[in-house]
Write a structure and sequence with these properties.
Number of strands: 2
Low-confidence stretches: none
Strand content: under 5%
Helix content: over 70%
Distance between the termini: 52 Å
Largest sheet: 2 strands, antiparallel
Structural class: mainly alpha
């Protein structure tokens, strides 16, 4: 059991990989370095996939990629609506990043989403986009008036919701990813051979996709509400 506690502490520990000697020194954590790796890999994949694209008679690779992109696009569009189409590229980017971030543990890296700082940053980015979408659609005065709907009595609750939403997005993503790790470690202690394999498939692959989908789904729903 002590080994489990040590593993959990290691997962929660935000280790500094190196320090940039600027001002008093900027610590670069492991999650940031892994994110850079994900960005680099995604950049290479984009370069590889967009080569030799054809308008007519596309190859099998292009058809598969276009189908995947169209599926994600239509999934998000159904939530944000026509007025929120401008935010679909942002949501698609977050969705693809989260999938890679959640699955990168299969290659021996620590998933950035196990770092509370990363999930908090994603949640803050999303709430800024949501509020920008609302202000862009309704105007500043219209956004302020929206706090008093349907009655001015619940204005404090509507204001509090701005703080609750990013906290909910942050803790849901962080908690589910970390929770999957805890369950897998406990299974390895209780049933160390064979049985944890299907659970590993669920928590490290299927759950990784699900958490990416849930985060983007909720964000797109909030944006859709803001612009409608």
């Amino acid at each position: 059991m002590e080994g489990f506690v040590d593993r959990l502490s290691e997962e929660l520990d935000c280790q500094t990989v190196f320090t940039i000697p600027i001002f008093s020194g900027i610590n670069v954590s492991e999650s940031v370095v892994v994110t850079w790796i994900i960005i680099f890999v995604l950049g290479l994949l984009c370069i590889a996939f967009v080569r030799n694209l054809k308008v007519e008679n596309p190859g099998k690779k292009q058809v598969v990629i276009e189908t995947m992109v169209s599926t994600i696009y239509n999934m998000i569009k159904s939530n944000v609506g026509e007025h929120g189409k401008a935010f679909i590229p942002y949501l698609m980017t977050i969705f693809i990043y989260l999938i890679f971030a959640n699955l990168i543990g299969l290659f021996g890296f620590k998933p950035p989403t196990k770092d509370l700082n990363v999930t908090a940053a994603l949640a803050i980015m999303s709430i800024v986009v949501i509020e920008f979408a609302s202000i862009h659609k309704k105007g500043m005065l219209g956004r302020i008036k929206a706090f008093a709907q349907p009655t001015p009595l619940i204005a404090p609750l509507n204001i509090l919701e701005i703080l609750i939403r990013p906290l909910s997005l942050c803790m849901r993503l962080f908690g589910n990813i970390l929770g999957g790790f805890v369950v897998m470690e406990l299974l390895k202690i209780v049933i160390p051979i064979f049985i944890p394999v299907p659970f590993s498939f669920y928590f490290e692959i299927f759950d990784g996709f699900m958490q990416a989908y849930i985060f983007v789904f909720l964000t797109s729903i909030f944006i859709g509400e803001a612009v409608e």
